[in-house]
Amino acid sequence: MAIKLSQSLKQSQSLMMTPQLQQAIKLLTLTHLEMTNVIAEEMVENPVLEEFDIDDSKNREEDYNVERLEMQNKESSSDNMDESAFKTSHDEFDWSSYVDSFNSSSSAPPNMATRDLDDLPNYENIVSKGKSLAEHLEWQMAMEYFSEEDTKVALLIIHSINDDGYLATAFEEIIAESGRERQDVIDIREVIMRMDPVGCAAESLTECLLAQARIAEERSPLLEKIICNHLKDLQNRDFDKIAKVTGVSTNQIKDTAMLLQNFHPKPGRLVSNQDTHYVVPDIFVVQMGTEFVVRVNDEGVPRLRISNLYQEMLKQDNKEAKEYVQEKLRSAMWLIKSIQNRQRTIVKVAIAIVRQQQEFFKKGPKFLKPMVLKNIANEIGMHESTVSRVTTNKYMHTPIGTFELKYFFNSGVGGKNGGVDVSSEVLKLKIKELVKGENPKKPLSDQKIAELLSRDDVEVARRTVAKYREMMGILSSSKRKFKG
Asked: 206 with 102: CB under 8 angstroms?
């Protein structure tokens, strides 16, 4: 049996992901701070790279940075940027907002009233706080007259508390693990719950609020009774039911409930050892006359060039030295080229965003247009994946605030059957405004909100309204209803 062998040539194209190409792609996704760190590391590892003086006119053409932003502190304001939460009147406690703050990751208590700036803690004290919650409680525990055995139990409780200030382990398990009498462990936990911040080591919201109510300057038995038995009724704004059960007037129930504005549903968040994350804008947008000018942020980005010393080494006869310098030279040139490409691409994308969102920059978030990655990709002649990388973790500083580039990309909603296409963010604002202006005794249903939106030519279904309402943490109309 004969076997016939043959050869043939075939042409094909394939993309090789070289280390240099991977580096270029990685640079696109980095934040401003991350990029400056990468450059600093490369300058340490690659002796061919050096930083040149900004005043070196001979090398100005090699500079990949855009002119330093001028007048960046001259920012205009917008009348349409008022999105602050509504303030609660004296006779109407906003329990929904209070519950939202309990469910959120915010470290601040619900802001129900305007506070005097003089009452706020010193800024230096805020930013210098570095202790963890456990360390903060241990420090206070050391000042208590605990025996050695009690100290062990106290430490067991403290190290079972999560960042919010609640027990992450069931209290019954802690009692069993301690090997102590039940009442002894209860007494020790009560001491911890009175420490600063008050309410830590609680198992539930009720326990946490009750601990804070018991150390108030003016204790209110009625408030404690409401916390113990009527938190659900308070959430449903059923003041009449609470009044009927407690035997006091509805107005007195409302006034007493207002005391909760000073309580912290997550006391542990008042003490945090988490590092502060600062946002450094990659792009600045400045209004000059009627035009919006885009500038890349070059703060902290060193201007790179190839060292003359190593360029001279290429002329030497030393083969090993030559090969080493050539390798480092290729790496350095690719890095400089990648940085140039990153900066130019970010500027291109930013200019395209500003061009398509003119109304937003002039009038505020209510005028944000629906826009997807494809819109920008088509305008600048790049692939959508490139635009996606460029807009990841990048921020734009504008006259009306600092926004992540991803913020500007929103799908259109409400454009069916001749309706006006609006962005999802604008739809959220519209729903929020309608709820804010509703009659608390007759709150708007999802269907009614959809009908009101249709008057502005925004055609959305009831289920769409419900979806966005839930995304914003707004309760249903039945739970928003004022029962008084």
From this structure: no
